[in-house]
């Protein structure tokens, strides 16, 4: 029987055939497709490694953004040159008040949700996912450096921190968007299977291994 397209709207590349493929996997017949249970394949280890990279990026993102409110809203504590409030004081630096704090942090969140569009375009049209992620990491690193510079005592004392901090938000948001729009698809792409095939489980049950279910399982385990 000639190859036919599998009836799965999630992946037009999944095909079936009467003949074993080059790896010796037996493709399901029409009767087997109608009667056998479908299961997911094993998830490749490199998908988990890439997920760890995303975990590190999330630690970086939330680890710095959680202190933005105090840094913007609260004034520099008396006797502090770094913004640290120590045991009894309120940490802060810029002293711009709640309105400025809410405005800047809201803009940062908005910017981080807009830039993935640009990141997806760059990856699809120019650099590819992996290269775009590498560029995003470098951009985010530059943003973190600018963030540190905005908290240097000499910069805080000279009232130049707000400029460096604002630029850092823009740069970090750009890096975050380029990273987030590509890391999840890259994880799913680590599974290279494109064809349904039949295997026998340890209990002796014949099942169909479905690549679409495997990709769905990857996303479900990633998103929890």
Search tags:
224 residues, mainly alpha, three-stranded mixed β-sheet, 8 helices, 7% strand, transmembrane, transmembrane helix, MFS_trans_sf, POT_fam, membrane
Write up what this structure looks like.
59% of the residues lie in helices and 7% in strands. The chain has a domain at 45-75 and 93-188. The model is unreliable at 1-22 (pLDDT under 50). α2 packs antiparallel against α7, α4 packs across α7 (161-188) and α5 (129-150) packs antiparallel against α7. With 224 residues, the protein is mainly alpha-helical. The protein contains eight helices and five strands, in the order ββαβααααααββα. β4 and β5 (206-209) form a beta hairpin. The two termini are 40 Å apart. The strands form two sheets. A three-stranded mixed β-sheet has the order 3-5-4. Its main location: membrane. Keywords: Membrane, Transmembrane, Transmembrane helix. Residues 1-33 are annotated as: Disordered. It is a multi-pass membrane protein. Belongs to the major facilitator superfamily. Proton-dependent oligopeptide transporter (POT/PTR) (TC 2.A.17) family.
List the helices and strands and how they pair.
Layout lengths: L3 E2 L9 E2 L13 H6 L1 E3 L5 H21 L2 H6 L23 H31 L1 H22 L2 H5 L3 H28 L8 E4 L5 E4 L1 H13 L1
Helix pairs in contact: 2-7, 4-5, 4-7, 5-7
Number of β-strand runs: 5
- The total count of helices amounts to 8
**Alpha-carbon distance between the two ends:** 40 Å
Q: Main β-sheet: number of strands, strand sense, barrel status?
A: 3 strands, mixed
H/E topology pattern:
EEHEHHHHHHEEH
How much β-strand is present in the residues?
5-15%
In one word, what is the shape? elongated
Helix content: 55-70%
Look at the helices and sheets and give the structural class.
Answer: mainly alpha
Strand order of the largest sheet: 3-5-4
Low-pLDDT residue intervals, each spanning 5 or more residues: 1-22
Mean pLDDT: 83
InterPro entries: MFS_trans_sf, POT_fam
Membrane topology: Multi-pass membrane protein
Keywords: Membrane, Transmembrane, Transmembrane helix
Region (Disordered): 1-33
């Amino acid at each position: 029987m000639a190859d036919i397209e599998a009836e799965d709207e999630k992946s037009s590349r999944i095909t079936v055939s009467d003949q074993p493929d080059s790896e010796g996997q037996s493709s399901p017949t029409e009767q087997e497709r109608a009667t056998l249970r479908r299961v997911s394949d094993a998830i490749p280890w490199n998908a988990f490694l890439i997920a760890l990279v995303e975990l590190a990026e999330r630690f970086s993102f939330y680890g710095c953004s959680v202190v933005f409110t105090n840094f913007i809203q609260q004034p520099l504590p008396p006797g502090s040159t770094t913004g640290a409030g120590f045991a009894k004081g309120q940490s802060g630096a810029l002293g711009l008040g709640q309105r400025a704090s809410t405005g800047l942090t809201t803009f940062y969140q908005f910017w981080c949700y807009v830039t993935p569009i640009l990141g997806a375009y760059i990856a699809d049209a120019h650099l590819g996912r992996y290269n775009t992620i590498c560029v995003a990491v470098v951009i985010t690193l530059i943003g973190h450096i600018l963030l540190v510079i905005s908290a240097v005592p000499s910069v805080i004392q000279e009232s130049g921190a707000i400029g460096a901090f604002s630029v850092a938000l823009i740069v970090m948001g750009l890096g975050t968007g380029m990273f987030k729009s590509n890391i999840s698809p890259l994880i799913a792409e680590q599974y290279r299977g494109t064809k349904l095939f039949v295997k026998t489980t340890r209990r002796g049950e014949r099942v169909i291994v479905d690549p679409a279910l495997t990709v769905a399982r990857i996303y479900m385990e990633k998103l929890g």
